[in-house]
Amino acid sequence: MSNEVSTAAEFLTSVVDLSTDSTTVFAYPVILRGISVNVALSAHAVPITDGSITRFQVPSAASVGQWIECGDSRMATLVVDPDNAATGKITVVYKPDNAGQAGSGAGLPA
Description:
This protein has no helices and eight strands. It is globular, with a radius of gyration of 15 Å. It is mainly β and 110 residues long. The mean pLDDT is 87. Strand 4 (46-50) and strand 5 (53-58) form a beta hairpin. 0% of the residues lie in helices and 46% in strands. A four-stranded antiparallel β-sheet has the order 1-8-3-6, with no helix packed on it. Strands 2-7-4-5 form a four-stranded antiparallel β-sheet, with no helix packed on it.
């Protein structure tokens, strides 16, 4: 079975090594599609935070290849903040949320 993640072209992927204490995937508004587990996790859940608020959590029992759907949730920032002793790797699928910002095409006629 392949651990490849595929989604619409406008979405980006970022592989996050959980042995790094905290990783800011994107520091600006973002739309989070989902998370895929690439390498088995240690016995630690993995919080996905928006600032100081945990919005999603990858369960410690998640298996390789498991997809955690995030429903195209809008977040101000996207941070993976695992426990200091966590191990494993996940792929985060997201896209910048430019809705209503200059240069986004918002408000232009179709």
